[in-house]
Amino acid sequence: MESSVAPHLRRPRTVPARKGPDFRPPYPSFSARFPQHTREVVMAYLGVQWPDRDGVPAAVTEAVAALRASLAAGGAGHADLAEYVDEAGFRTRVVIAYWTDPDAYRRWRAADDWTAPEHAGPGLGRFREVVVPTVDRFETLFSSDRLEGVARLADGLSGEIREHAYWGGARDRLPIAQDGEIAPEGRVRVTVDGPVRTVRPGRNVCLIRSGQEWTETAGEERRMYLEDVEPHLRAGMEYLRDEGLAVGCHVNRYMTVLDDDGAPTDRTFGLSWWRSMAELDTWAESHPTHLAIFRAAMRYLSTMGPAANLRLHHEVTVAEGDDTEFVYVGCHDRTGLLRAVGA
Fold it and tell me: How far apart are CA 197 and CA 93, in angstroms?
């Protein structure tokens, strides 16, 4: 049993952890381990939206294909393709790209501006939501050895960690929270330059990508997940999508990972930006929508035990503020952080 915080990121804890060093979680989980020379990573969400009427327009397919080819040539270490429908009924495809070299990302962005003004057009919008955190400002958690998201760029996984299976575990896994203040400061602001709107969040805005994969489930286990667990998960995701501002959630997307041909897979994740980690913690610990998810998941896991084939993962980032980019061109007014301006 070891700490989620990598040895080279550990320092004397002045902010007490929720659980002490003698705590033993009831099931194993792991955290990603990055090379010691990694100082920052780039997490880029590059989206294209359109009114959900008649399938996927050819312009969307072509734009996403060109983007993925550009990212591969531009040094992105990994990229996922996913899709969701937002609260305004707009369908959105997103390429999520990761780099461990921020300079390589900046060179790519300078050569291929996904949100350039000329991309504004009727019926299609584009956005770029990017965070470039230092390694002490994000944490990861996995129920198995199958890596997802930013962990695809890691060296591998830790051994079994102790900071999980209790409320507040994400904060205890976050290296900066050992001795740093991560309270929110400031409001979400927007500047407009023709068709381009740029949003600046407050300090210490929180990003979570939390996912599940049921590819290897079958029979009763698959039925239990799809009929007993997933409906509660979907209800919670839709609550945050439609009403999340009231609990500090700027934007939430329940996303399906697509394969290379654009077909849905047995992998989904919630992606949300929060005003603060504290408000994310409060929703997780006490809101009826999350407690319903938690209870359904615990029933499933207690029934299946070690034989469970559902794979769970998440990554949580607390951004400094200046390390973010939120740019929207041709998007509707409730896209992304545009809906949270003033919050």
Answer: 19
Residues of the chain where predicted confidence (pLDDT) is lower than 50: none
- Give the other-Cβ count within 10 Å of 303's Cβ: 13
Residue 181 has a pLDDT of 86
Cβ within 8 Å of residue 140, ≥6 positions away: 31, 32, 149, 150, 151, 154, 173, 313, 314, 315, 316
| Lookup: tokens for 338 | 């545009």
DSSP type of residue 201 = P
Q: Which of 8, 78, 314, 332 is catalytic?
A: 314
**pLDDT score of 343:** 79
Give the residue among 116, 190, 127 at the shortest CA–CA distance from 331. Answer: 127
83: left (phi over 0), alpha (psi -120 to 50) or beta: beta
H or E segment to which residue 282 belongs: helix 277-286
Q: Which residue has the tokens 């077909």?
A: 263
| Single-letter amino acid code for the residue at 114 | W
Active site residue 314: yes
Please name which of 259, 253, 270 lies closest in space to residue 315, comparing C-alpha atoms. Answer: 270
CA torsion, ordered 217, 221, 225, 229, to nearest 10 deg: -150
Q: Which amino acid is at 240?
A: L
* pTM (2 d.p.): 0.95
